[in-house]
């Protein structure tokens, strides 16, 4: 299969491009498209065969459930049931935007979307291209990040092609994605709600509506069936660049001293505290370093607040859990 790329205007996408992409979705094909977080790999969420193609194209284990993207609130009631008032309040506050809600799944959504769970993860994306595609397709769109399984998420069209060229029909190239990290995933089927993945909507923002919500990650080293069932998408080896990545924690002076020691052996470095900028660049930087043939990446810690918590989560997993904490 040859992957066709169409360049689209990220602010007001060309109707012809959207129309073509929507017709691919409607006939069960795969389309990669930009969202405000990362590029997604989309298929008709109500078509089990189309959804199966997503898992195949990504080499993704069938135990890892997908996020369903909707264009309008009416679609929420089509795919989820027993929707609590809190879900409506969160949708009103953060949709369209980078917040994914896990709710009770309706039978119209095929089980493979949810990796067999009774739940479904839903979000309404804010990116004009994603919105237009969802609206024109007329169906909810299941879309994981458009990368091969366990690799870094794509924030530019070129990243999608590196992983998926020849595996998907169409790519809408809308330029770099504005946030650069995936959506926040919040499970509303548990009480109190459980933050499964920090992301584009900050924990502090959620806590204004849900004071008791915390982030207590359950990263897992292997993808056993039981673990995958309890904590989908929490594999410790994830977002991996080819280079070794080591994450440092602790007081900045001691971290720097320790980094210097490690760097003496391996030579590395780099610093910046603009968290929004780091968020936007973190995945593309790992890819870029890989392309330069780098063998070891040292990352200095930073404040785990705001988008910083999401960045930390991605890096701890890129490091496969190997945090060098000089305060311990
Ligand atoms: O920002 C994003 O969320 C991007 C864009 C494309 O929307 N999508 C994305 O999808 O990051 P993906 O497949 O890379 O991550 C989906 C994750 C799963 O790994 C799991 O952690 C969680 O969402 N998830 C999905 N469905 C779930 C469910 N039914 N129950 C619990 N967690 C679920
Ligand atoms: Mg992903």
Walkthrough of the structure:
This protein has 328 residues and is α/β, with parallel strands linked by helices. Helix content is 35%, strand content 18%. The chain is built from eleven helices and 14 strands. The strands form two sheets. Strands 1, 2, 3, 4, 5, 6, 7, 8, 9, 10 and 11 form an eleven-stranded mixed β-sheet that branches. A hairpin with a 4-residue loop joins strand 2 (31-34) and strand 3. Helix 1 crosses helix 5 and helix 10 runs parallel beside helix 11. The mean pLDDT is 92. It binds threonylcarbamoyladenylate and magnesium ion.
Could you name the key traits of this structure?
eleven-stranded mixed sheet, binds magnesium ion, 11 helices, binds threonylcarbamoyladenylate, alpha/beta, 328 residues
In a nutshell, what does this entry contain?
The protein has 328 residues and is α/β, with parallel strands linked by helices. It has helices at 15-26, 48-58, 73-79, 85-94, 128-137, 157-164, 203-209, 225-230, 252-266, 275-291, 307-318, and strands at 4-7, 31-34, 39-44, 67-69, 80-81, 99-105, 119-123, 141-142, 170-173, 184-187, 194-197, 244-249, 296-299, 323-325. Helix 1 packs across helix 5 (128-137) and helix 10 (275-291) packs parallel to helix 11.
């Amino acid at each position: 299969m040859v992957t066709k790329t169409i360049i689209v205007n990220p602010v007001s996408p060309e109707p012809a491009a959207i129309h073509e992409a929507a017709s691919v979705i409607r006939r069960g094909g795969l389309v990669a498209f930009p969202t405000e977080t990362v590029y997604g790999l989309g298929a008709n969420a109500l078509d089990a065969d189309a959804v199966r193609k997503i898992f195949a194209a990504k080499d993704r284990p069938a135990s890892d459930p997908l996020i369903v993207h909707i264009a309008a609130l009416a679609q929420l009631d089509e795919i989820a049931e027993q929707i609590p008032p809190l879900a409506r309040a969160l949708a009103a506050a953060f949709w369209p935007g980078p917040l994914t809600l896990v709710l009770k799944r309706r039978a119209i959504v095929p089980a493979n979307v949810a990796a067999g769970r009774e739940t479904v993860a839903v979000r309404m994306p804010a990116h004009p291209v994603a919105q237009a595609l969802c609206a024109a397709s007329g169906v909810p769109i299941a879309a994981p990040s458009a990368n091969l399984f366990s690799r870094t998420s794509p924030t530019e069209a070129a990243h999608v092609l590196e992983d998926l060229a020849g595996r998907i029909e169409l790519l809408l190239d809308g330029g770099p994605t504005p946030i650069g990290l995936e959506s926040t995933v919040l499970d509303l089927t548990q009480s109190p709600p459980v933050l499964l993945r920090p992301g584009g909507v900050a924990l502090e923002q959620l806590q204004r509506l849900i004071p008791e919500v915390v982030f207590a990650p359950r990263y897992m080293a292997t993808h056993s069936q039981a673990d995958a069932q309890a904590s989908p998408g929490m594999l410790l080896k994830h977002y991996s660049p080819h280079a070794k990545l080591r994450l440092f924690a602790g007081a900045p002076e001691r971290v720097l001293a320790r980094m210097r020691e490690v760097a003496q052996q391996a030579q590395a470095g780099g610093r910046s505290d603009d968290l929004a900028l780091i968020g936007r660049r973190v995945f593309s930087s790992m890819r870029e370093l890989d392309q330069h043939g780098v063998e070891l990446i040292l990352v200095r810690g930073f404040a785990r607040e705001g988008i910083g918590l999401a960045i930390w989560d991605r890096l701890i997993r890129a490091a496969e859990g190997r945090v060098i904490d000089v305060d311990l």
